[in-house]
Amino acid sequence: MKGIALHWKILIGMVLGVVFGLIMTQFDFGKEFVGDWIKPFGKIFINSLKLIAVPLILASLIKGVSDLKDISQLSIMGGRTIGLYIITTVVAVSIGLFLVNTIKPGESISDQTRKELVAQNLDKANKYKQQAEIQKSSGPLSALEDLVPSNIVNAASNNRNMLQVIFFAIFFGISLILVPEKKSKTVKEFFDGFNEVILKMIDLIMLAAPYGVFALLASLVVESPSIDLFKALGWYAITVILGLFLLLVFYNLLIILIVRKKPSFFINGILPAQLLAFSTSSSAATLPVTMERVTEHLGVEEEVSSFVLPIGATVNMDGTSLYQAVAAVFIAQAFGMHLGIETQLGIILTATLASIGSAAVPGAGMVMLVIVLAQAGIPEAGLALIFAIDRPLDMMRTIANVTGDATVSMMVAKSVGKLGDPKIKNWDDNYKK
Ligand code: ASP
């Protein structure tokens, strides 16, 4: 496969994975064979990506922040990042609400199908409810409290604590600016070199990406539910997918109008990260690749990308918030409920907050959906209705989550004059060896 661009290699891996999975479903031993001999390679691939997430954030953010001339630049960047993240999320939820109210997918579900789906998946839905209870029971300031770790080694030992690692790295970077240059020079150089090594690790891991996605998709296909379910929930799935597509169009408009770049440039740069987001269903696992693509191929300077992207991977989930809005109203429709305008406005608020609270891992959006449903007074048992086809939708919303972060990073970079030419002109160069 020498000489073929990376995104093609990944796409070929994905298609072959699906085909292989489909063939395997024809054999009695197929599911077990894939589970025993193929699936582990997918897991190894995801683990290797997650493995470098914490060191990458530490090294690149410390380097990024300490490269800034002064701290006021950081607060300007921080304000713009958070502002843009909130705006894009609200746009996403609004697209979702508009579509679900227009298409009304819930009305196409018969009473019979609804009862069957709820009965089949109630146990699994209850598990999600319990997880959400834990989140709900914490106080209003708990998110702020959780931001500051009491022990950095503990914080860095769990990928779910990404925000704590970000907090430490920013704090460390700021302090590094304040230390006399004679003392800070060596530390800066260390993180600089460390960062280079991590970026090289990403390149090497990406060489295995086509095989990794093959394994991931083959195991998903053999484990996927029957096609009948997709038919019953077809309109719901179409609504979510259409919404996500419109969201991608919206990002491209921002790229044209505000960043002033061509969509083809943006898509070429970000495509491998999108394909990986689809295959892994996790923005956290995709983060190293998103950072590499945005920095090396889209021209965002590292000071910006190392700050905007890790925060985005944890708090900005536009695809997830769009899905939560559609799912909430779909469930209400399927249960014959009419939602007034205030309830729908409430959904905008809770879906925005819930997507901020969702972890960047598969299925997290569904856990937080419980909170959106509870706030809007929609039966939580409705989770059982959408459970069966959550994974494919999760894969697609993760693409939107990652693309949203990349778009905002380009906008912030443009606004602070840190959007340059891509370091790698021929965008596949660092893989052609
Ligand atoms: N899987 C999504 C992500 O990692 C989160 C979700 O919507 O479940 O971005």
Provide structural commentary:
This protein has helices at about 5-25, 30-50, 55-65, 70-105, 110-135, 140-145, 150-155, 160-180, 180-205, 210-225, 225-230, 235-260, 265-280, 285-295, 300-315, 320-335, 340-355, 365-375, 385, 390-415. It is built from 20 helices and no strands. The protein has a single domain, classed as Sodium:dicarboxylate symporter (Proton glutamate symport protein, Orthogonal Bundle), CATH 1.10.3860.10. The protein is globular, with a radius of gyration of 22 Å. With about 425 residues, it is mainly alpha-helical. It binds aspartic acid (ASP).
Keywords for this structure?
mainly alpha; Proton glutamate symport protein; globular; binds aspartic acid
State the name of the first-level CATH class: Mainly Alpha
Give the overall form: globular
Q: Which fold name fills CATH's third level, the topology?
A: Proton glutamate symport protein
Total DSSP helices: 20
Q: Over the alpha carbons, how many angstroms does the gyration radius reach?
A: 22 Å
The fourth-level CATH homologous superfamily is Sodium:dicarboxylate symporter
How can the largest sheet be summarized? none
Strands, total number: 0
Mean pLDDT across all amino acids: 88
Tell me the count of domains. 1
Distance between the termini: 12 Å
- Give the topology string: H per helix, E per strand: HHHHHHHHHHHHHHHHHHHH
Any guess at the CATH architecture? Orthogonal Bundle
Extract low-pLDDT stretches.
Answer: none
Bound molecules: aspartic acid
- Structural class by helix and strand composition: mainly alpha
State the helicity in percent bands. over 70%
Strand content: under 5%
